[in-house]
Structure formats: structure tokens, C-alpha cells
Amino acid sequence: MQSVSRYDRHIRVRIHLQIPMVYRHQPVISDLISVSGLAMNITAAMLGSNTDDCGYFDLELRGTPQQISHGLAHLKSLDLKVIGKPNSDGDEWHY
Question: Are 11 and 94 spatial neighbours (Cβ–Cβ below 8 Å)?
Fold first, then answer.
């Protein structure tokens, strides 16, 4: 029987990701998936085409702890504001 380490186990993380105008026409979400290998569900979004305000995505990220860390580091490298969501559904881990 093969054991599963805590690093192989998939976890869920909910985040709120703000998208500034400079990234409005860039594939930020697609790049996040490509770079990290995460599975993702977009639970809410707002990106107005005729506004000067930031847009946002509410995302549920699923993957190993290493994939989650890598994905969050990628977003940080773009200088995007990431806000963690509370652990309201009893996830194993949250940001």
C-alpha cells in the first residue's frame, strides 16, 4: 500500500485577487494555471472594460501545497494584491 505524504495531498485555498489596469489585457489567470499546474474555480469576478478601477477574481485554487505555494509566489512576482479568504468551509489550509 502506497502512503501519501502531506506534500502529495491536494488542498483547497480561496483567494481574492485584484487585477490592476496594467494587467487588464494580459492572461493572468491562464498564466497562473500554466506556471503552477493548479486546478481552479472562479467563484466571482468583476472586470469592467469602461472603468479606471481595479478588477478582481475570487478563486478557489486546488493542488498540492507545493503547487499552491508556487502559484502564490508567481502572483506575488507580478506585484498583484492577493487577499486570503477565511477558512469558512473547513478547508485543510487557507492563505
Answer: no
